[in-house]
Specification:
By secondary structure, the chain is mainly alpha-helical. 47% of the residues lie in helices and 8% in strands. Strand 1, helix 1 and strand 2 (37-40) form a beta-alpha-beta unit. The protein binds glutamic acid.
Length: 497
């Protein structure tokens, strides 16, 4: 049998998500249980949304969890490059093949035409999709429009009728009518491939034998299988894992649960406990034991035993498990060592001492100044937010808007945090001191000698987000109706900025 090769293929477009770690874990266990190889591929074909910073965070967070890979952009391998932005020539050569065979076609439709088409389809309650307008352009017309340098994309042909049937290793046969499948764009007008095209070409060239990914990709699988067919390639086997869910069963979202892997690091969880917890999502050990190491999981691993009921990502359960690890797996000395290692991460302490050095006389003076950095959620009371210029609604708005602004920051440092605060205060027509007050309470809890801007910068987005959320909850949050209003107000503010 050919070697087992699996991959995790994150798009570097935001915070490193626990869902990525979950999928990485199952792919890694499966590959290594079968003496295969586990690959990390960076899917950064979306030029606008992908950032190198996000890629760096993904690598760092998976490394923190110990989910190492055998081939990837940093360690190399036989089938690189492992970053899609470095593989443009490969996609170009492959799209030529499909164009020659006539299984893909150039489409010159303008965005306006496509928008109108969509609006019309929506109005008629039809499934929105491309109508095949450019499907039958003559070779001559295509050549003319190409030489006139008309902007265009390349789309794949899709059967007009019948069903796509495929086997999902966890779900059995899946049947999706071709009429539900759009003539997917394969190459965008900027010449770069879409996810679908790059993903299939790479899975084939990287000899991926088993595609284990989230269930949100089930509906894309017909397009992928059709591409394998067009190329005349043997497709891999597909396994669609159940999505992680919030305790209320909705899809795991950062609105309701911290989803960034770094939140768990910064909050002081042990990586081995987080990995164990992710392993509990859809997987149970044959002996029913809930606490297990990645090695134990791998030794017992059997993909067909993954259960499909939406696994609930529940912080209380993770706390319980992490507590067990602290008590049962670490000696007192080890616990002390791990704690000190955590406290020193990212040079947090060094950055703080730099700020307060002029004002302290002995180590003990540092302790109260540093406490905010080493705490999780703070004990606050609604009264703490009382302020003569801001009522509770104003404070909530400040907190929410500031959080949204911070989440949009591409670079996180003291200067960017400060500029953000200043410009937001200005557009909210608040004095910076008043504006910073609720943030100060939410983020540091009580007076510290560092400025709130420094505190935010040192703490990092994940803990700041958690504390702002916590404060918002404490102040009663926003009702569903209110959320809409606040979003609208925020949008208007942005437009006027
Ligand atoms: N880039 C896709 C993602 O971000 C990969 C999906 C797949 O595994 O095919 O999830």
């Amino acid at each position: 049998m050919a070697q087992i090769r699996t991959r995790v293929a994150p798009s570097p477009t935001g915070d490193p998500h626990v869902g990525t770690a979950y999928i990485a874990l199952f792919n890694r266990c499966f590959a290594h249980a079968g003496q295969g190889r586990f690959i990390l591929r960076i899917e950064d074909t979306d030029k606008v949304r992908s950032t190198t910073e996000s890629e760096r965070k993904i690598l760092e967070s998976l490394q923190w969890l110990g989910l190492s890979w055998d081939e990837g952009p940093d360690v190399g391998g036989e089938y690189g490059p492992y970053r899609q932005s470095e593989r443009s020539d490969i996609y170009q050569a492959h799209i030529e093949q499909l164009l020659e065979k006539g299984t893909a076609f150039r489409c010159f439709c303008t965005p306006e035409r496509l928008q109108d088409l969509r609006a019309e389809q929506m109005q008629q309650k039809q499934t929105p999709g491309y109508d095949g307008h450019c499907l039958h352009l003559s070779a001559q017309e295509v050549a003319e429009r190409l030489s006139a340098k008309e902007s265009h994309v390349v789309r794949m042909k899709v059967p007009a009728e019948g069903d796509c049937r495929f086997m999902d290793g966890l779900r059995g046969e899946i049947v999706i009518p071709w009429t539900q499948i759009d003539m997917q764009v394969l190459i965008k007008s900027d010449g770069l491939p879409t996810y679908h095209f790059a993903n299939v070409v790479d899975d084939h060239l990287m000899k991926i034998s088993h595609v284990i990914r989230g269930e949100e990709w089930i509906n894309s699988t017909p397009k992928h299988l059709l591409l394998y067919e067009y190329f005349g390639w043997q497709p891999p086997e597909f396994f669609h894992m159940p999505l992680l869910r919030n305790p209320d069963k909705s899809k795991l979202s950062k609105r309701k649960n911290p989803t960034s892997i770094f939140y768990y690091r910064d909050m002081g969880y042990l990586p081995e406990a987080v990995v164990n917890y992710l392993g509990m999502m859809g997987w149970t050990m044959p002996n029913g034991e809930e606490k297990f190491s990645i090695e134990e999981m791998q030794a017992a691993f059997d993909l067909t035993r993954v259960s499909l009921g939406g696994p609930i990502f529940d912080l209380e359960k993770l706390d319980w498990l992490n507590g067990k690890y602290l008590r049962e797996n670490l000696s007192d000395a080890e616990l002390a060592e791990r704690f000190l290692g955590w406290a020193a991460q990212d040079d947090r302490l060094g950055r703080l001492t730099g700020l307060v050095k002029q004002r302290v006389e002995k180590f003990t003076d540092l302790v109260p100044l540093a406490a905010f950095m080493f705490s999780g959620l703070l004990e606050l009371r609604p009264d703490d937010f009382q302020h003569k210029k801001l009522d509770e609604e104003d404070s909530k708005k400040v907190l929410q808007f500031f959080l949204w602004h911070l989440e949009a920051l591409e670079e996180w440092n003291r200067d960017t945090v400060e500029t953000t605060a200043q410009s937001l205060a200005e557009s909210m027509e608040l004095k910076i001191r008043d504006f910073l007050f609720p943030i100060f309470v939410a983020v540091t809890g009580k007076p510290v000698s560092v400025s709130v801007i420094d505190a935010v910068a040192i703490l990092g987005l994940d803990l700041v987000r958690a504390r702002i959320r916590h404060a918002l909850d404490l102040l009663g949050g926003f009702s569903k109706k209110k959320v809409k209003e606040v979003e609208k107000a925020y949008q208007q503010l942005q437009e006027h900025q």
